[in-house]
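call fold(seq) -> tokens
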Amino acid sequence: MFTASYSAEQQGELATRLISFLSQYSHISNNYIIEFFTEDLWNTLPKTWQLVLQDLSYQQIADLLLDSKNEDRRYPSVWPLSLLVLRATAHALAFPRESRQERGTVKPEEFLENQSQSSLLRHIFRKHVKPKKQHEICKLGTLVKQLCEQTGCSRVVDVGSGQGHLTRFLSYGLGLSVTAIEADRSLVAMASKFDRQLVRALEKENQKKVGTLLDSGGSSPRHVAGWVNPGASWEAFIKQLKTGDSFSQGPPTPTGPSQNRHRGLNHVVQIPSSLGSTDSNTQPQDLTLRHQLKSEEELSAVKCCSCVKESVCPEESSQPGCPEFVLTGLHACGDLSATLLRHFINCPHVRGITSVACCYMKITTKENPTPPGLVGCTVPLTSGQESLPQEFGYPMSSWVRGLPGHELSYKAREGACHAVEDYMQRLREESELLRTHCYRAMLEAFIRETRPDLCRAGIQTIKKAHLLPFTEYARLGLARIGLPQLPLDPERVEAMLKQQSRVVVYFSLSLLLAPVVETLVLLDRMIYLQENGELLQTLVPLFNPNLSPRNFVLVAHKSCG
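ret:
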């Protein structure tokens, strides 16, 4: 099922073309839209481009520039060949972002009956879970299950597990033995709380249906609170899983052979069919920066349980040494996804991996080893966690590292995290949200005139900014960075507001390049796997990009023997 998407030669050739293309247009991908006025970005575009772009409607920007699937482009004027080449090449080089089954669909079929509840998940797996996350755990959980079957593994390690939504589905829904590790202890505590709630729901369900209590042989995941050090060895990672702080609830996870792993599970969860759905006719769909759900309620102190032996690498096991397992990471942020790939390559116990990356701007590079927002260890490293010589999140492969111009700036990688599909929808709806970039660029101009040293100040999102007049937006923004109210010339404000369409066009040009940047980052990881002998790997657009923009999953497994 999992076969190579590209040959080694094809991968190398594509990487060369991507880097050559991005190097030509780095002046667009490297610019910040908030500097539209301060850096006079509009006039950095060729005059021939300006003439045809300045009068486009928002609908035309979406149809003619961003929509790669539009086959009926009707131009209001003759576009210069250089602009046509930019658009066509960007679309041709980027990995396709839709699976065959969902091509052209805005909303996944599972939400057609109820837009907030996936029809593929039972209610116990939808509780506390937003539609986006329901879609993700449903798709990725099924893929992980299939990878486990192909590799002969029954154990999974879920890294960056957050509140444990994927972990619960893998464990209670699909019958896998799961160890989840998460750096944020409050999220680990919440995951354990949700586990208890699910178990109680199952107990009540079983009492109603068969008059018995929950089978003690049912599955419970093991939650570990710990920061995965990108610089630590795979041996330290295994030790962390084995001895880290555990929040364990319910019956322990069995450690016997995989065929015994399902004892009592169908009785407990009653989901012999795919995806935990009550519809036995449901079939899995075509397979192809982890954004963790933050709890909105205050968390009470949780007593940490002592380490249980039934972990990924138990002290006593019927299997010699450490049992084999599959690694998974749903939107593992920054370098974490790169770290998991290195553990997959180096650790003999890891048989397969499903990696969904996000937050590319937090990836470390040689040029920027400590990017803004980089999460570090909040506690002293324990013995065995001492860092190895630094390896960067990009590039990972020797091939890409050796290509001239392979460098990707922080801004280019940040741009690759934007949601192209969502922005196209805003354009077609002529949403007032499009005003926000113009507002921020205008405020940047006024700030720089007073404080030239204060560049790109972190004002962050202002709630419902698009509904505010600019004067009120400026007042709130200036207060956030401790600046007094500035005189705002009404005529100048009005003149800037009239350039909103140009701001939208320029941002759309940078957004056109975003999928190409993401393609290079992911291709580099595919080449890294190939260079290290892992030919059984592929990249699949698993999620619907309208619902989950970072929708690619890199799947790989080691061949037998």
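Residues 10-101+413-517 form one domain.
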